[in-house]
Amino acid sequence: MSVAIFDTLQQSLVPAGSAAQVAHGVLVLQLQPAELLPTVQRLKSEFGFDIFLDVTAIDWMGQTPRFEVVHHFYSTTHKQRVRLKTRVPEAEPVVASLTPLYGSAAFMERECHDMYGIRFAGNLDLRPILLYEGFVGHPLRKDYPKQQEQPLVPYRN
Q1: pLDDT tens-digit series, residues 74-108
Q2: What is the dihedral of CA 34, 100, 43, 39, to 10 degrees?
Q3: d(Cα 74, Cα 53) in Å, to the nearest integer?
Q4: 29: β partners
Q5: 58-84: buried (b, 16+ CB within 10 Å) or exposed (e) per residue?
Q6: Burial of 136 by CB count in 10 Å (0-12 exposed, 13-18 middle, 19+ buried)?
Q7: Is 27 buried (19+), middle (13-18) or exposed (0-12) by CB count in 10 A?
Q8: How many CB atoms lie within 10 A of CB 23?
Q9: CA angle, residues 88, 44, 119, in degrees to nearest 5
Q10: Which of 40, 53, 116, 149 has the fewest CB neighbours in a 10 Å radius?
Q11: The CATH homologous superfamily of the domain defined by 3-89
Q12: Residue 152: which residues within 8 A CB-CB, separation 6 or more?
């Protein structure tokens, strides 16, 4: 990562009590859930991170908070990537939706919701996108039983 843009982002975006590091040439910022949307707004408007690449989650079963939501961004101006991480608890796994800033977030958030059960506040369409309606559970959670049989649902024409 470019030292100049790394320093600028670190000085401008890393709130007190948050962490920043470079991993595999990518700036990684660890944020609190409330800091996510304001940070992404600044990344897009002030620093030119105009492409939202992906959102996924990591299930750290046994840790508190349990889930880590990971967002990836790319700047066509700086030719650099940024990764934002935020932890959410199992009891209330909710982060802000990025759909107001990036339209493509709608589908990526639906996938993450399907697989992990993370809710994205502000995404009005969290219907299943990879699983069928009626699927029980979230298959990428570490406590999901591998042998679980799903209920049969009638085929709709």
Answers
A1: 999 999 999 999 999 999 999 999 999 999 999 99
A2: -10
A3: 7
A4: 20, 84
A5: ebeeeeeebbbbbbbbbbeebebbbbb
A6: exposed
A7: buried
A8: 9
A9: 25
A10: 149
A11: NADH:ubiquinone oxidoreductase Nqo5 subunit (3.30.460.80)
A12: none
Q: Over the chain, what HEC string results?
A: CCHHHHHHHHHHHCCCCCEEEEECCEEEEEECHHHHHHHHHHHHHCCCCCEEEEEEEEECCCCCCCEEEEEEEEECCCCEEEEEEEEECCCCCEEECCCCCCCCHHHHHHHHHHHHCCEEECCCCCCCCCCCCCCCCCCCCCCCCCCCCCCCCCCCC
Q: Write the pLDDT tens digit of every residue in 53-82.
A: 999 999 999 999 999 999 999 999 999 999
Q: Where are the domains of the chain?
A: 3-89
In this structure, what token pair is assigned to residue 115?
């697989």
pLDDT, residue 3, reads 61
- 6-54 residue pLDDT tens: 778 877 877 655 688 888 989 999 999 999 999 999 999 999 999 999 9
| pLDDT reported for residue 143 | 94
Q: Are 97 and 77 in contact (CB under 8 A)?
A: no
pLDDT of residue 1: 43
